[in-house]
Write a structure and sequence with these properties.
The protein is an alpha/beta fold and 491 residues long. The protein contains 18 helices and 18 strands. The strands form three sheets. Strands 5-6-4-1-7-8-9-12-11-10 form a ten-stranded mixed sheet, with helices on both faces. β5 (70-73) and β6 form a beta hairpin.
Length: 491
């Protein structure tokens, strides 16, 4: 069967470019969970991937290609086309730092307390107009150019919160284009969207409804989206058909939980770099090991996790010297003041807890700041308890990665506000991410759980993730695209 032509559109691309010490150009795998998940598409289909030029060398590559798509190679040797967009630096700063990560991310993870923040001034309007709109227009223009370039039958697959405006722009230029958009972050309730200026929140919802299909990780996020469309722009939601109707268009809203590349993690389990990191962890680990692997993002709830651990130690002195929390944290978005402040706060919290409880060479929190993926996989193998307690998360793949490689029948303590909870909550210990007492008790329950129950829960999560892996998610995406390819099947 012929490979379907896909145009994948995301802010980050599958690779980035740099120069090595000798001045030679090198190609590196793109960062981020989204890119990792989407890379599998290029092995299935005829893919053109449109992304931002993120590095100086990316921009040099884009310039050499004249702004057009060029051929690249996937890890399995298959080829795909890559089109890098070199944005104006000021426009990209407004798009990425002010709007996407400084505003939309905070909205979509319920990160504002509302008593004092947000307090939008004219800078948000400027960043939206001169940044977010401009960059989304650049993406839309690139998509239209590819559709005009002998790819009129291609399906366009937009991804995430960076590109909410682009589908409507493409729809105007190409009314019959097949457009899908997957939202990898939570969708909050309509009242929280009202924190944004009216024209911005309307543009977000109308932009998404220009797609034929919008995908979410959970029913909770889809339901919030559908009702927000009703309340904020007067759309109609037909739950039986899973369709939102607005402005003469119908958009299907689907639930398709993303997952991990199980084959990759099986290979990583015995990777020499992972084994070397595991030896270091095993040499210094105590009897009981709690692990958390996160970006230093306020939504990940790291400070409350530390405080819950301190409460556990306060209430259970018998655990002193026997348990350590190993926190492997990847610095995130440090150009934003809120993120820099949060990293400082969590480091200060860990230091205070260590000063309070340490004794005879035992430090209860082993905090490591850095980007070391092999170390994270090694920690996954060694955990007795995996703490995943985000304030709110679209999915959270850590909850799926860890159990697949763990060798100790480790227990997952999982926030009820993580998207992964909808699938794994039956076998994890659920927690309210705002309730320190609840989390402390959950950690104690996990640490003292009988071996048979630990084994049952761990096996169930691993089996579920293996059955519902990234390949299954990709197949679901492609099946929906094939359905849409028949014009008669479009709602």
């Amino acid at each position: 069967m012929a490979r379907r032509r896909l145009i994948v559109v995301s802010n980050r691309g599958p690779v980035s470019y740099a120069r090595d010490a000798g001045g030679e150009r090198v190609t590196r795998r793109g960062g981020g969970g989204l890119v990792t998940a989407l890379r599998g598409l290029v092995t299935h289909e005829d893919v053109t991937w449109i992304a931002s030029a993120m590095t100086d060398e990316d921009r040099a590559v884009a310039a050499e290609a004249g702004g057009e798509a060029f051929e690249e190679h996937a890890r399995d040797g298959s080829t795909y086309r890559l089109r890098l967009i070199a944005h104006d630096a000021d426009a990209y700063d407004g798009f990425y730092n002010v709007v996407a990560n400084g505003t939309l991310w905070f909205v979509q993870h319920y990160l504002w307390g509302l008593a004092y923040e947000p307090a939008f001034g004219p800078e948000l309007g400027r960043a939206w107009r001169d940044g977010y709109e401009v960059v989304n227009r650049s993406f839309a223009d690139a998509v239209v150019a590819e559709l005009d370039n002998d790819a009129t039958d291609a399906a366009v697959c937009f991804h995430d919160y960076h590109l909410y405006l682009a589908p409507a722009l493409v729809r105007v230029a190409c009314p019959d284009a097949l457009l899908t958009h997957f939202v990898h972050v939570p969708w909050v309730q309509a009242d929280y969207w009202r924190t944004l200026p009216r024209d911005l929140r309307v543009a977000v919802h109308e932009g998404l409804l220009a797609n034929d299909v919008v995908g979410f990780h959970t029913e909770r996020w889809r339901s919030n989206f559908a009702h927000a469309c009703e309340e904020l722009i007067g759309a109609e939601w037909n739950a039986e058909e899973s369709v939102v109707r607005s402005g003469g268009r119908a958009t299907r809203a689907l639930v398709q939980p993303i997952s991990i590349d199980v084959v990759e993690f099986d290979a990583l389990r015995d990777d020499p770099a992972v084994l070397a990191e595991e030896r270091l962890i095993a040499e210094r680990r105590p009897e009981l090991l709690i692990v958390r692997v996160d970006r230093t993002d306020p939504s990940k709830n790291i400070v409350r996790g530390f405080r819950a651990f301190a409460l556990l130690l306060e209430r259970h002195p018998e655990l002193h010297g026997r348990v350590v929390m190993l926190a492997l944290l990847d610095p995130s978005r440090q150009s934003l003041p809120e993120y820099a402040d949060y990293l400082e706060a969590l480091a200060l919290e860990a230091r205070g807890i260590n000063d309070r409880f340490r004794q005879d060479g035992w430090w209860p929190i082993d905090l490591e700041i850095g980007d070391n993926f092999h170390q994270s996989v090694a920690a996954y193998k060694q955990f007795d308890v995996l703490l995943v307690n985000p304030i709110c998360d679209g999915m959270n793949l850590v909850a799926k990665e860890g159990p697949v490689v763990n060798s100790r029948d480790g227990v997952v303590v999982l926030s009820e506000n993580a998207g992964a909870h909808a699938e794994l909550g039956e076998w994890a210990i659920s927690v309210n991410p705002f309730d320190l007492e609840d989390q402390a008790e959950a950690l104690n329950r996990a640490l003292t759980m009988p071996p048979d129950e630990r084994r049952r829960r761990a096996a169930a999560i691993s089996a579920f993730v293996r059955e519902h892996d990234i390949e299954a998610w990709i197949e679901g995406q492609l099946a929906e695209i094939e359905r849409l390819a028949d014009p008669a099947s479009r709602v």
